Protein backbone atom coordinates (compact mmCIF):
# COMPACT_ATOMS: atom_id res chain seq x y z
CA UNK A 1 0.00 0.00 0.00
CA UNK A 2 1.49 3.35 -1.08
CA UNK A 3 1.62 6.63 0.81
CA UNK A 4 -1.45 7.97 -0.98
CA UNK A 5 -3.47 4.86 -0.15
CA UNK A 6 -2.35 4.97 3.48
CA UNK A 7 -3.25 8.64 3.77
CA UNK A 8 -6.66 8.00 2.18
CA UNK A 9 -7.31 5.12 4.58
CA UNK A 10 -6.40 7.25 7.60
CA UNK A 11 -8.68 10.02 6.33
CA UNK A 12 -11.59 7.61 5.89
CA UNK A 13 -11.00 6.12 9.35
CA UNK A 14 -10.99 9.64 10.77
CA UNK A 15 -14.27 10.37 9.00
CA UNK A 16 -15.91 7.25 10.40
CA UNK A 17 -14.58 8.08 13.88
CA UNK A 18 -16.00 11.60 13.61
CA UNK A 19 -19.40 10.20 12.59
CA UNK A 20 -19.32 7.85 15.60
CA UNK A 21 -18.56 10.73 17.98
CA UNK A 22 -21.30 12.86 16.42
CA UNK A 23 -23.81 10.02 16.76
CA UNK A 24 -22.89 9.63 20.43
CA UNK A 25 -23.35 13.23 21.43
CA UNK A 26 -26.05 14.66 19.15
CA UNK A 27 -29.51 13.69 20.48
CA UNK A 28 -31.66 11.34 18.38
CA UNK A 29 -28.90 10.64 15.82
CA UNK A 30 -27.10 7.71 17.42
CA UNK A 31 -29.42 6.80 20.29
CA UNK A 32 -33.21 6.80 20.37
CA UNK A 33 -34.48 6.68 23.99
CA UNK A 34 -36.97 3.88 24.66
CA UNK A 35 -37.81 3.44 28.34
CA UNK A 36 -34.67 3.03 30.46
CA UNK A 37 -32.52 1.98 27.50
CA UNK A 38 -31.70 3.30 24.02
CA UNK A 39 -32.19 1.87 20.54
CA UNK A 40 -28.90 2.55 18.79
CA UNK A 41 -28.11 3.26 15.15
CA UNK A 42 -24.35 3.56 15.73
CA UNK A 43 -23.78 -0.14 15.12
CA UNK A 44 -24.75 0.48 11.48
CA UNK A 45 -21.82 2.88 11.05
CA UNK A 46 -19.44 0.27 12.50
CA UNK A 47 -20.80 -2.47 10.23
CA UNK A 48 -20.50 -0.27 7.14
CA UNK A 49 -16.89 0.52 8.05
CA UNK A 50 -16.22 -3.20 8.51
CA UNK A 51 -17.66 -4.36 5.19
CA UNK A 52 -16.15 -1.48 3.17
CA UNK A 53 -12.73 -1.25 4.85
CA UNK A 54 -12.28 -4.74 6.33
CA UNK A 55 -12.61 -6.43 9.73
CA UNK A 56 -9.52 -4.81 11.25
CA UNK A 57 -10.64 -1.28 10.46
CA UNK A 58 -14.19 -2.20 11.46
CA UNK A 59 -12.90 -3.36 14.84
CA UNK A 60 -11.00 -0.08 15.20
CA UNK A 61 -14.13 1.99 14.50
CA UNK A 62 -16.11 -0.24 16.85
CA UNK A 63 -13.46 0.39 19.49
CA UNK A 64 -13.89 4.15 19.03
CA UNK A 65 -17.62 3.74 19.69
CA UNK A 66 -16.96 1.58 22.75
CA UNK A 67 -14.45 4.00 24.25
CA UNK A 68 -16.72 7.01 23.66
CA UNK A 69 -19.64 5.09 25.22
CA UNK A 70 -17.46 4.16 28.19
CA UNK A 71 -16.39 7.81 28.64
CA UNK A 72 -20.03 8.92 28.44
CA UNK A 73 -20.91 6.48 31.22
CA UNK A 74 -18.03 7.73 33.40
CA UNK A 75 -18.96 11.37 32.85
CA UNK A 76 -22.69 10.90 33.45
CA UNK A 77 -23.76 11.82 29.92
CA UNK A 78 -25.28 8.42 29.13
CA UNK A 79 -28.73 7.08 30.02
CA UNK A 80 -29.68 6.39 33.65
CA UNK A 81 -28.85 2.70 33.38
CA UNK A 82 -26.02 3.34 30.93
CA UNK A 83 -24.18 5.26 33.64
CA UNK A 84 -24.19 2.07 35.69
CA UNK A 85 -23.88 -0.70 33.12
CA UNK A 86 -21.54 0.86 30.55
CA UNK A 87 -18.79 1.75 33.03
CA UNK A 88 -17.70 -1.88 32.57
CA UNK A 89 -15.54 -1.95 29.39
CA UNK A 90 -16.40 -5.63 28.88
CA UNK A 91 -19.94 -4.40 28.20
CA UNK A 92 -19.27 -1.02 26.59
CA UNK A 93 -16.07 -1.62 24.58
CA UNK A 94 -15.50 -5.31 23.79
CA UNK A 95 -18.85 -6.02 22.04
CA UNK A 96 -18.35 -2.98 19.79
CA UNK A 97 -14.90 -4.16 18.72
CA UNK A 98 -16.33 -7.57 17.90
CA UNK A 99 -19.11 -6.03 15.76
CA UNK A 100 -16.46 -4.90 13.29
CA UNK A 101 -14.56 -8.17 13.37
CA UNK A 102 -17.65 -10.34 12.88
CA UNK A 103 -19.30 -8.21 10.18
CA UNK A 104 -16.09 -7.62 8.23
CA UNK A 105 -14.96 -11.25 8.36
CA UNK A 106 -18.41 -12.57 7.45
CA UNK A 107 -18.68 -10.29 4.43
CA UNK A 108 -15.20 -11.34 3.25
CA UNK A 109 -16.21 -14.99 3.61
CA UNK A 110 -19.59 -14.73 1.89
CA UNK A 111 -19.03 -12.37 -1.02
CA UNK A 112 -18.23 -14.05 -4.32
CA UNK A 113 -19.16 -11.56 -7.00
CA UNK A 114 -19.10 -7.75 -7.03
CA UNK A 115 -22.47 -7.78 -8.76
CA UNK A 116 -24.08 -9.87 -6.00
CA UNK A 117 -23.59 -7.93 -2.79
CA UNK A 118 -27.05 -7.77 -1.25
CA UNK A 119 -27.19 -11.16 0.49
CA UNK A 120 -23.66 -10.96 2.01
CA UNK A 121 -24.35 -7.39 3.18
CA UNK A 122 -27.72 -8.30 4.72
CA UNK A 123 -26.22 -11.28 6.57
CA UNK A 124 -23.24 -9.22 7.73
CA UNK A 125 -25.52 -6.42 8.92
CA UNK A 126 -27.75 -8.75 10.93
CA UNK A 127 -24.79 -10.68 12.36
CA UNK A 128 -22.99 -7.50 13.39
CA UNK A 129 -26.10 -6.12 15.06
CA UNK A 130 -26.81 -9.38 16.91
CA UNK A 131 -23.18 -9.55 18.05
CA UNK A 132 -23.67 -6.26 19.85
CA UNK A 133 -27.06 -7.20 21.30
CA UNK A 134 -26.07 -10.67 22.50
CA UNK A 135 -22.75 -9.62 24.06
CA UNK A 136 -24.18 -6.54 25.78
CA UNK A 137 -27.10 -8.57 27.16
CA UNK A 138 -24.71 -11.33 28.19
CA UNK A 139 -22.53 -8.80 29.98
CA UNK A 140 -25.51 -7.32 31.82
CA UNK A 141 -26.66 -10.78 32.90
CA UNK A 142 -23.15 -11.85 33.93
CA UNK A 143 -22.09 -8.78 35.87
CA UNK A 144 -25.40 -7.45 37.19
CA UNK A 145 -27.80 -10.41 37.14
CA UNK A 146 -26.95 -11.48 40.69
CA UNK A 147 -27.36 -7.99 42.11
CA UNK A 148 -23.61 -7.54 42.52
CA UNK A 149 -23.32 -3.76 42.25
CA UNK A 150 -21.95 -0.96 44.36
CA UNK A 151 -25.31 0.79 44.08
CA UNK A 152 -27.11 -1.30 46.67
CA UNK A 153 -30.20 0.89 46.49
CA UNK A 154 -30.97 -0.63 43.08
CA UNK A 155 -32.20 -4.21 43.09
CA UNK A 156 -30.48 -5.40 39.92
CA UNK A 157 -31.42 -9.00 40.61
CA UNK A 158 -35.10 -8.07 40.24
CA UNK A 159 -34.48 -5.49 37.52
CA UNK A 160 -32.23 -7.55 35.22
CA UNK A 161 -35.00 -9.68 33.61
CA UNK A 162 -36.81 -6.46 32.65
CA UNK A 163 -33.59 -4.91 31.29
CA UNK A 164 -32.84 -8.03 29.25
CA UNK A 165 -36.39 -8.11 27.87
CA UNK A 166 -36.36 -4.45 26.84
CA UNK A 167 -32.85 -4.63 25.39
CA UNK A 168 -33.69 -7.85 23.56
CA UNK A 169 -36.81 -6.23 22.11
CA UNK A 170 -34.71 -3.25 21.04
CA UNK A 171 -32.27 -5.64 19.38
CA UNK A 172 -34.89 -6.75 16.86
CA UNK A 173 -35.46 -3.33 15.24
CA UNK A 174 -31.72 -2.68 15.42
CA UNK A 175 -31.05 -5.86 13.41
CA UNK A 176 -33.81 -5.01 10.92
CA UNK A 177 -32.39 -1.49 10.47
CA UNK A 178 -28.93 -2.96 9.85
CA UNK A 179 -30.29 -5.45 7.31
CA UNK A 180 -31.86 -2.59 5.36
CA UNK A 181 -29.35 0.25 5.70
CA UNK A 182 -26.04 -1.65 5.43
CA UNK A 183 -26.72 -2.85 1.83
CA UNK A 184 -28.29 0.50 0.90
CA UNK A 185 -25.22 2.52 1.95
CA UNK A 186 -22.42 -0.01 1.41
CA UNK A 187 -23.32 -1.19 -2.10
CA UNK A 188 -22.42 2.04 -3.94
CA UNK A 189 -19.29 2.45 -1.81
CA UNK A 190 -18.14 -1.05 -2.74
CA UNK A 191 -19.10 -0.86 -6.42
CA UNK A 192 -18.13 2.64 -7.44
CA UNK A 193 -15.30 3.88 -5.22
CA UNK A 194 -11.60 3.23 -4.90
CA UNK A 195 -12.27 1.93 -1.40
CA UNK A 196 -14.43 -0.84 -2.87
CA UNK A 197 -11.83 -1.72 -5.47
CA UNK A 198 -9.14 -2.05 -2.80
CA UNK A 199 -11.48 -4.05 -0.56
CA UNK A 200 -12.21 -6.61 -3.28
CA UNK A 201 -8.52 -6.79 -4.13
CA UNK A 202 -7.71 -7.73 -0.53
CA UNK A 203 -10.54 -10.27 -0.45
CA UNK A 204 -9.34 -11.92 -3.66
CA UNK A 205 -5.76 -12.08 -2.34
CA UNK A 206 -6.92 -13.88 0.79
CA UNK A 207 -9.10 -16.32 -1.18
TrEMBL record:
Q: Which keywords belong to this entry?
A: Membrane, Transmembrane, Transmembrane helix
- InterPro entries named in the record: ECF_trnsprt_substrate-spec
Q: Which Pfam families match?
A: ECF_trnsprt
Superkingdom of the organism of origin: Bacteria
An example Gene Ontology molecular-function term: transmembrane transporter activity
Q: Which positions, given as ranges, span the membrane? A: 12-32, 44-68, 80-107, 119-143
This protein's record includes keyword Transmembrane: yes
Keyword Transmembrane helix recorded: yes
Protein name (Swiss-Prot/TrEMBL):
Substrate-specific component PanT of predicted pantothenate ECF transporter
